[in-house]
Write a structure and sequence with these properties.
100 residues; alpha+beta; four-stranded antiparallel beta sheet; 4 helices
């Protein structure tokens, strides 16, 4: 099942995010077989991160919750709000991704 996890950063957490970035990426690597897509949510000029989006292929909501509750940025207090929603694959067009 696909679950989207939409995370909004707390105010003034830019430095905290940078401090935990290496550990965050290592955590993502542990779930390479479950992460369909992930990436930071950014300002229009890409200068500031405002949160993160994860789309996971997991067995159930409990697994999605376990993933985010153990995620490095979550544990560091970077995320002020987290929304988890089950979803189904609709349209998918990877050719639209930048750099392809």
């Amino acid at each position: 099942m696909l679950y989207s996890i939409y995370c909004e950063d707390a105010e003034n957490t830019h430095d905290l995010r940078a401090q935990h970035l290496v550990e965050h990426r290592a955590y993502l690597d542990l779930f390479a077989d479950k992460i369909f897509f992930s990436g930071p949510l950014q300002s229009d000029d890409a200068a500031t991160a405002h949160g993160s989006l994860f789309i996971l292929n997991v067995a159930d909501r409990a697994e999605a919750e376990a993933y985010i509750h153990n995620e490095v940025f979550y544990k560091a207090g970077i995320f002020a709000k987290v929304t988890i929603r089950r979803m189904r694959k609709g349209r998918y067009n990877p050719a639209l991704i930048e750099g392809l």
